[in-house]
Design brief:
By secondary structure, the chain is α+β, with helices and mostly antiparallel strands. The protein contains three helices and nine strands. It has one domain: START domain (Alpha-D-Glucose-1,6-Bisphosphate, Chain A, domain 4). The chain has helices at about 25-30, 35-40, 130-150, and strands spanning about 1-5, 15-20, 45, 55, 60-70, 75-85, 90-95, 105-115, 115-125. The longest helix has 24 residues, at about 130-150.
Length: about 160
């Protein structure tokens, strides 16, 4: 079950979700390039696995490319890992995304053991109002994708 931030006035996207997997497994899904390629893309996009470059350390890279499934759209996501505490915290500082109105963002991923699983809370922003709505929709979809990948286990 996912919870949304009750503040619609916020300039951040927010999602909180319980997964039936321990924090170490959820953390690995965030830091293993093969797993990230399987769940990060929102609807109508895919992530070529060769585009994912993750260096899981403070100062490391978190890079990927989202490719539109039936169109020419290609969006590069480039971020630096600015905080990392395995298995409970990942903070990414994302660069502006070309072709969008998304500027520098901070994405904070907190993983807490809860009831035999993990409570993942993600905040990401700041965004303009339109970009926030799109980001919120994207994060809601990504949680569903991540749930599917965790349930399926390793590829």
């Amino acid at each position: 079950m996912s919870d949304r931030n009750p503040s619609a006035a916020s300039d951040e996207a927010y999602v909180s979700h319980h997964f039936d997997a321990p924090p170490e497994i959820v953390f690995a899904a965030w830091t293993d390039p093969e797993q990230v390629a399987r769940w990060w893309a929102p609807r109508d996009f895919e992530i070529p696995s060769e585009s994912v470059d993750i260096e899981p350390r403070v100062g490391g890279r978190f890079h990927l490319e989202m490719v539109e499934v039936s169109g020419p759209g290609r969006f590069r996501y480039r971020a630096e890992i600015v905080e990392l505490a395995e298995p409970e915290l990942i903070v990414l500082k994302g660069e502006p995304i070309a072709g969008t109105d998304i500027e520098v963002t901070i994405t904070r991923v907190e993983l807490v053991a809860e009831g035999g699983g993990t409570r993942m809370t993600v905040t990401s922003g700041p965004f303009t109002r339109e970009a926030r709505e799109n980001a919120q929709t994207g994060w809601d979809e990504l949680v569903v994708n991540l749930e599917r990948v965790l349930a399926a286990g390793p590829a």
